Structure formats: C-alpha cells, structure tokens
Amino acid sequence: MIIDSNKIDTHNEILIQSHANKLVFLASEIGETENIVQKLIDFQIAIPSWALGTGGTRFGRFAGGGEPRSLEEKIEDVGLLHALNNASGAISLHIPWDIPTDYNAIKSLAAQHNLKFDAVNSNTFQDQANQEHSYKFGSLQNVNKAVRKQAVAHNIEVIQQGIALGSESLTVWLADGSSFPGQLNFRKAYQNTLESLEEIYAALPSNWKLFLEYKNAEPNFYSTTVADWGQSYSYVKKLGDKAKTLVDLGHHLPNANIEQIVSLLLMEDKLGGFHFNDSKYGDDDLTAGSLKPYQLFLIFNELVEGMDARGMNHAKDLGWMIDASHNIKDPLEDLLQSVEAIMIAYAQALLVDRKALEIAQNENDVVRAQEILQNAFRTDVRALVAEARLRSGAALNPVGLYRDLAVRNGLIAERGLKTMATGL
Questions:
Q1: Taking the model in full, what pTM does it have?
Q2: pLDDT digits (tens, 9 = 90+) for 110-141
Q3: Which of 68, 145, 164, 294 has the fewest C-beta atoms lying within 10 Å of its C-beta?
C-alpha cells in the first residue's frame, strides 16, 4: 500500500493555517527556529522489522489484522510510516527472522520507499529450526565451546547479510546469564563472552561498528552476562574502536539515571546508539515518551550537549532506533506516536540555553539551572516538528491522516484479517 502524495497535500492544506498560526507564536517565544527545523528534517529514526506486528507477553498474543507476512510487506509498512512523517527513513532487520531471498530485489524495494538499512541484529536467544546446539544455557558465554562457535558463526553470517544490504553495523544482544546461584562461574562466563566477541569483532569490515546492548535481567533473573552499561563498556573497551555500547531505555534497574550513563559513554566515545521505548516496571517496551517524557528530554539534553562537545553530527554519528512491543495498539500508530515523542524531546533539548546553563552550573545556582531545563521542556515544540514534516513533504498530523485514510482497513483488505507478522 502506498499513500498518494496528493492525499498528503490535501491533508496539509486543511491544517496549514492553524499550523502557521502556532508556528508564528512559537517563533515569537523562542526566536530563531530555522536551525532547529533543519536538524529535525535531518534526524531519522530506524524502525525495527519485528515491531510492525502486534507484540505479546508470555500470557498470550492478540494479533491484529493486516499484519505484514513477509519482509517485503514489512518494508512497505515502514515506507508508509516514512511517507507520513519523513522521519523513519531506515529499517533494522532481525536475523534469522527476516532473511532476504533476493538481496537486490529487497534493496530495490527499500529504495522505492526511500529507506536505508540500519543495523542488522543477530539472534542467539532462540533456538532455530535445524540448529545443532541449543542456547538454553547461553550462547557466547556457554561452557560448551561448540555452542559458542555456533553463536559466533551466526553473528558472522549476519554481518555478511548486512554487507549485502548496505548496512554498516551489527547489534548484539545476549540473553546469556543464569537463573540460580552457583549455576555459573561469573568470571569464566565473562571470559568466554569476550573471547567470542573478539572473533565476531575480527570479522567486521573496516567501516562497520559493533553495538553491544546490555540488559539487567530477563530471561535470566539471577545474573546477566552483559547486565549494565559498565559491563558493556568493559567489553567494548577491550574490543577496539569499532565497538560501542548500545542503550535500550528499558534495560535498566528502576530509577537508573540513564542521562548520566549517556553523558559518560559519550565522553568516553563508547556510545553507539539507542533503542527508544518507555516503561513503568521493567522492559515494558511501551510507546516512547508515553510515561516519562521528562526523562526522555533529559536524555536528549545530555545527548545534544555531549555530541556538540565532541563535534558530532546529531543525525549520523549515533544509531537511533525504536524497540517497542505494541500489544494492544495498532503497531503503525504506535510507531508514529513514538517517533513524534522522540522528535519533540530532541527539539526541546535543542532549545536549552547552553551558555546560561553553564553559567548557572559554574555558579552553583541550582534553581536557575533547573529553571533553564524545565523552561525548555515545557515549551510546546510540536509546531517545529510539524514544520519539519511539512517541508519534507510529509503530513502535518501523521496519526490523523493515517486514520482519515483508513490505512489499517486497507492493509486488512490486502493481507487479510487473520495475518500474523513473521518473527514474533
């Protein structure tokens, strides 16, 4: 399904006067807007191939209608998102859930939707059909060297598939760990994991990066072999310059200061990218910004400050991706909401008066520092985000147009009511 650009234009014509009024008012409040709008136009957030269908829990999954049945249909769905917001210009594949049968055809289809291929993701947290060794007791950490070799070989295969697609990074998330005291020798598990990662790292092309994601718990609940940012940092520091830490917002203990983690990893040149989502209790994978919008802003505040301090390109020098599970929402609507929340937090962070904040910090003026941050956070920047979409040929109100065009009903008509997305 492709959204006709004329329908987007018609939608925008209806809303343009109201939008213009909001933009004029906002500009009168904050002053210069052009630089922010251009940064928003440039900023792209990758969509994971596994987030285009309904998610689920260990209690069950309630599939929605019109879900993508193939990699081709997943690319088409990301193309729909990108047409609506012009901020979802990349797709991240999970292997082996989404192995292309014809790489040239898949690349051509992606290009038709103005999409690039973001990081490729390996999977050693599930046993696959015809797999010789099980990952029940871990993969890269496993006490059995044959299991470790199998997991290493899979990651190297994923790199080769990524090369064929034009990707330039590999994301490794490990479920490895233990569920009971005494089950695992922590030191040996670390050493086995590092040895395995070294083999994978050696297979990276010169222009590639390895992102090592961490998670405090689940599916193992006593220990996790890459449990937090410190452990990930320890591994990637040993591996080399092409290895970076990947931060998933839901992979922390409750109330962790993620913005401080971000700041320090940036300072050490070891922050690779983000998986955006939101949570209340654990790795809930809820819509980004739906519960903790101020935290999301504070994270972007540190990102902007840290990236500017290093002279980094906001749009290109880190990996930006959503990692969410849409259990009760339409997945495409949920993703549109997440992208919007991320763009809003980014725009608010760009509003922070850095010079004034630095003065307040140097003078230990705690109240002034808080006021500077909260004034930026409380500024309604939705008109700036909408203006970036408008100038890019996208919709002023992506969710509104999605519903007005009855996109989900169109997908159901094409694919059927009882479809289930592959890979989940």
A1: 0.97
A2: 999 999 999 999 999 999 989 999 999 999 99
A3: 145
Residue 249 in contact with residue 276, Cβ under 8 Å?
Answer: yes
Distance CA 322, CA 90 (A): 11
Is 226 within 8 Å of 215 (Cβ atoms)? Answer: yes
* Burial grade of 262 (CB within 10 A; 0-12, 13-18, 19 or more): buried
pLDDT band, very low/low/confident/very high, at 422 (cuts 50, 70, 90): confident
CB 155 within 8 A of CB 127: no
Phi, psi angle pair for 57, to nearest 5°: -130, 180
Fold classification of 5-415 is TIM Barrel (3.20.20)
SS3 223: strand
Ramachandran sector of residue 419 (left: φ over 0; alpha: ψ -120 to 50; beta: rest): beta
Place of tokens 């990102």: 303
Q: How far is CA 234 from CA 50, 93, 184, 226, 271, in A?
A: 29, 27, 19, 10, 13
Kindly give the residue spans of alpha helices, DSSP state H, lying in 122-257.
Answer: 145-165, 186-202, 229-239
DSSP-derived secondary structure letter, 220? -
Helices and strands, number each (H, E), in the chain = 15, 11
- Quick: pLDDT tens for 403-413: 999 999 999 99
What is the residue-wise DSSP string for 357-381?
HHHHHHTT-HHHHHHHHHHHHTS--
What are the residues facing 247 on neighbouring strands? 274
Can you tell me whether residue 307 is helix, strand or coil? helix
Non-local (6+) Cβ contacts of 72 within 8 A are 106, 109
Domain layout of the chain by residue ranges: 5-415
Closest CA to 177 of 223, 242, 115: 223
> Are 178 and 222 contacting, i.e. CB atoms less than 8 angstroms apart?
yes
What does DSSP assign to residue 63?
Answer: P
CA dist., res. 399 & res. 337, Å (int): 8
